[in-house]
Amino acid sequence: MSTQAAPTTVYSREFATGADLEPAANPERRVFADRVAHLYRQSILGILLTLLVGVIISVELWAPRYRDVTIMWWLITIAIAAARYGLYRGYLQRTDHDEEKWLRWMAIGALAAGVNWGIAGAVFFPSHTDDQQVFLAFILAGLISGGIAVFSSVWWTYALYAAGIMVPFIYVLAAFGNRLFAELAMLVPVFYVANIAVAYRLDRVFSSGFRAKEDYTRIAREQDAMNAQIEEQLQELLNARREVEASGRKLTLFAERAPIAVLEFDANATVLEMNPAAENLFGYAIGELIGRNGLQMLFPVDEFGVNDSWWRDFVSGVRPATLDRLRCIRRDGLEIMCEFSFTPLVNDDGDVISIIAQGRDITQELEAERLKKEFTSTLSHELRTPLTSIIGSLQLINSGVLGDVEKDMSDLTMIAERNGQRLLDLINDLLDIEKIESGKFELSPQVVSLDSLLRDTLVLNKSFADRYNVRLALAEQLAPTKVEADPKRLVQVATNLLSNAAKFSPEGGTVDITLELKGALVRVGVHDRGPGIPEAFRGRIFSRFAQADSTATRQKGGTGLGLAICRRLIELMHGSIGFEDRPGGGTTFYFELPALNENAGANMPQQGALQ
């Protein structure tokens, strides 16, 4: 029976036993609580027997001359019975687990009941006939024996009850003056000790039984907890199994419907599974490839990318690999170029279970890219020759070599020259990009005095900056610094950064140039006071044809190739390029190159102070 902690809790007629204590309580305390509860359960039987035996004795020993004594004895008996019943009700309605207190009250009640019967024997025994005395002695002996059934779960409560009966009765027998009664008075203690021994043995039996009950309850509780845990684990396993099955179905569906080829190999390159896209890519039916060596079936024997040696290294390395241009052989003997990724699946021990290969045909893409590059290169070369002649002719006209030209016509020729130059710059940028990406671009590295190169670049770009009313200036005196690089391409990078800074600086502003040594690197910084780089544009600012999508940017013009070319040129010279926000507004574009060792002793500023 469960209980509440609140003090207003009232127990029902069910008994609070050791099972109502906390499971963490001492098992011996729960056994003790069960013994006390058994005492109180039996107390009602004791009360009823007391009243029943009292009625029998009253009827049998009734005499008018003893009426007052009998009535007095009955009043005492009823009072004790009522007190014991009240104690029983109090135990039922208790709100604590102080078993020792309730056992003390039960012992007091048992002693009172025994003393009441002992006094009755002492009062009624001398005043009746021999037959009635024998009857009364028999009743008292029966009450002593019957008390074992009521009080033996705690043997010493029975000892108190039986002593309360025997002590007055023994005194009467010993003082009666009859030899037989005197002998009986000496035998009664022996009978008392025997009953105490029986009660003690029954006490041990009760304790063992209650301990067995406690052990069973504990085992049942543990079994219930274990069953609940097993049920929870089974449910978790069932849910995990459902999730695995659902994931398996999803993966199977993805593989079947995927537009790219998906193949599964074992560690020996044997094909285990493939999807319909793989059938279409290689021209093999599933039954023709499964169980066969995929390296021999799909890749040329002389293929340097995927062969037996590469496969062994890949499996032992247990790392994903991607081959972007891999020759493959179709069933009809046609060679195609594919892009493949190989992903090993490993278990907890690190052993390869299988390898998932995903591939797609890029033959048409590569061909389209080749044709595009050829077209761009051819078109650029074919356009550059006549465009150079046109620009040269316009420059002759605008310079006045051929004579004075009317103002309206001069304005038109100036616009034509400017736009022709823009077209020529675009063509040159396209050719540079095409050469870099095709691997045909060559640098001419040499030792370059970077400080002198920057001063010359400022002079070359001054007229361009004047067009936007912007001043180019050195933030401070540049210390002699040397790097190993292509001077022509360095001028191209610096010119591009300066022209961008001039275009996006406010009218009347200044673009500062700094040169500083950062460990083994030399950093060149170009600082402007422009509007800054939009957040959405920062991730692709060095991409091809990248321009910020704003009205101001479109008005400034540009091909969108300059920064992409700068990045590739600097990377080819083993450097890096980037940008950052300038304190106070604006942007700083910079590039870094490895410094020559002779710069180590130079007196270089660690941080340029901007004007």
Provide the spatial order of strands within the biggest beta sheet.
2-1-5-4-3
The biggest sheet amounts to: 5 strands, antiparallel
Determine the N-to-C terminus distance. Answer: 88 Å
Structural class by sheet pairing and helices = alpha+beta
Shape, per Cα inertia axes: elongated
User: What portion of residues belong to β-strands?
Assistant: 5-15%
What is the string of SSEs from the N terminus onward? Answer: HHHHHHEEHHHHEEEHHEHEEHEEHHEE
Describe it.
This protein is α+β, with helices and mostly antiparallel strands and 611 residues long. It folds into four domains: 206 residues, no CATH class; 104 residues, 2-Layer Sandwich (Beta-Lactamase); 70 residues; 156 residues, Histidine kinase-like ATPase, C-terminal domain (Heat Shock Protein 90, 2-Layer Sandwich). It is 58% helix and 13% strand. It contains 16 helices and twelve strands. The strands form three sheets. The protein has a five-stranded antiparallel sheet with strand order 2-1-5-4-3. Helix 1 runs antiparallel to helix 6 and helix 12 packs across helix 16. The radius of gyration is 55 Å and the shape is elongated. The N terminus and C terminus are likely disordered.
